[in-house]
Amino acid sequence: MIQQIVKQELKPRVIDIDHGLYTTEVLEKLGKAGAFRHHIASQNNGTTDVFGAIQDMATVSRECMTTGFMMWAQDVCAWYIENSDNAWLKQEILPKMVDGEVFGATALSNPMKYFAGIEDLKLSAEETENGYIINGTLPWVSNLAEKSDKHFFGSIFTVHDGEAKKDVMALIPCDLDGLTMKQMVSFEGMEGSGTYSLLFDNAFLPKKYLLADPIAPYLSKIKAGFILLQTGMAVGVIQGSIDEMRKADLTLAEINAYLDDRPDELEDELNDAIEFIKSLAENPFEKGTDYIKQVLEARLLGAEFCKRSADAVMQHCGAKGYILDAPAQRKQREAYFVIIVTPSIKHLRKEIARLEAA
């Protein structure tokens, strides 16, 4: 069913998505087909199948990684709710998100960098009896729609109480009073991902949206799944690049034989990487430094592999890869997104180095 949706619903829209079309129609159909259900045990007969979610994301990303990226945002937002203690969110929001009736996003790029010591947290809040008054700005959050009551995102903010402070995580609706959403720039890739800058001006968030307080045990619980799910984008764009290389070989095989990173070689390596990811996804709640280090290494492997595939697909296609809207050009842009999206290659290497030094 996922492959049929890709062929019939997604493929005809890919060029428009490249040029900025943000649509939830494909996400709705993917939800109805069960793509967002695998890793959500409460909605999947008690089974947490992270690898199933990765496989469906890879199938979609093979054709269009912008849509694969939105799948990841949807998947992780559902993951946040599933692993919280918030019964109201689990009852009122989670089933709709899993079915593709409402849409989820993650505003954790800045918090992840904050916890890694790379930058300061950009949102702060004052706690009241019934909620939080939030202020600050987030530069880019994707899979959103302005003033929508069907779009939500997970975010972290520092709560100040005199000199004391703590970090709290919550789900935030896009129609929140005091939240302004603006599309400030245009991107050369991933333009159809519904990406906005978010400005909070005394925005009041009721406590019914709380995901975690205290936050540390919760982040430890969701971290591996968050990172592993991103490998679905990497696997898909690498396989899509291999597809384009094989198409190029229909006319250029004789000369392409002199290139490094030939499609059969890349596919063998990709299959090995998929097996590694699958083994890690079997227990996303495993504790210990060795496990999380392997998760980071798997994500880093995906990013570095994307870099190779982006170079290889353009070399295999030659000048035809430079034609406007050529698939090879899209694969290159998509691959570099895996490289730079949080956690980026440099962020991953920093975290792995920290674990090795501990």
Topology:
Blueprint: H1 2-10, H2 14-18, H3 25-32, H4 50-61, H5 65-82, H6 87-92, H7 94-98, E1 103-106, H8 109-115, E2 123-127, E3 131-141, E4 151-161, E5 164-173, E6 179-182, E7 196-206, E8 210-212, H9 216-229, H10 231-256, H11 263-281, H12 289-317, H13 327-340, H14 345-357
Parallel strand pairs: 1-4, 2-4
Antiparallel strand pairs: 2-3, 3-7, 4-5, 5-8, 6-7
Helix pairs in contact: 1-3, 4-5, 4-10, 5-9, 5-10, 9-12, 10-11, 10-12, 10-13, 11-12, 12-13, 12-14
Give structural notes.
- This protein is α+β, with helices and mostly antiparallel strands and 358 residues long.
- The protein has three domains: 2-104, Acyl-CoA dehydrogenase/oxidase, N-terminal domain (Butyryl-Coa Dehydrogenase, subunit A, domain 1); 105-213, Butyryl-CoA Dehydrogenase, subunit A, domain 2 (Beta Barrel); 230-357, Butyryl-CoA Dehydrogenase, subunit A, domain 3 (Up-down Bundle), CATH 1.20.140.10.
- The protein has 14 helices and eight strands.
- Strands 1, 2, 3, 4, 5, 6, 7 and 8 form an eight-stranded mixed beta sheet that branches.
- α1 (2-10) packs antiparallel against α3, α5 packs antiparallel against α10 (231-256) and α12 (289-317) runs antiparallel to α13 (327-340).
- The chain starts with a helix and ends with a helix.
- Number of domain units: 3
For the record, give the distance between the C-alpha atoms at the N and C termini, rounded to a whole number: 46 Å
Helix/strand structural class: alpha+beta
The description of the largest β-sheet is:
8 strands, mixed
Shape: globular
Oligomer classification: single chain
Strand content: 15-25%
Q: Any guess at the CATH architecture of the largest domain?
A: Up-down Bundle
Stretches where pLDDT is under 50 for at least 5 consecutive residues are none
Rg measurement, Å: 20 Å
CATH class of the largest domain: Mainly Alpha
